[in-house]
Design a protein that fits this description.
alpha+beta; Ribosomal Protein L24e, Chain: T; two-stranded antiparallel ribbon; 2 helices; 4 strands; 36% strand
Length: 78
């Protein structure tokens, strides 16, 4: 599965899990990715994308403002 958002560019981060005794163990922090079918406003076709919930909010804002975007171009850049 793709682990990067097409809009925000968020991807898997690495950090430490710290126990009560202060032992450190490596862990992975995953973005909140959703698999969605979205309508591409440029081509008027449905596109399946992996996008974070924050990215969905950004696309909604872009639509409200009338900002043009192309989902196919965003998918190909990632």
């Amino acid at each position: 599965m793709v682990k990067k958002c097409i809009v925000t560019g968020k991807k898997v981060a690495v950090g430490n899990r710290v126990s009560h005794s202060n032992r450190h163990v490596k862990r992975r922090l995953f973005p909140n990715l959703q698999k969605r079918r979205l309508l591409d406003p440029k081509t008027k076709k449905m596109v399946v994308v992996h996008i974070t919930s924050r990215g969905l909010r950004t696309l909604k804002k872009w639509q409200r403002e009338g900002k043009p975007y192309d989902l196919n171009a965003l998918v190909k850049n990632t």
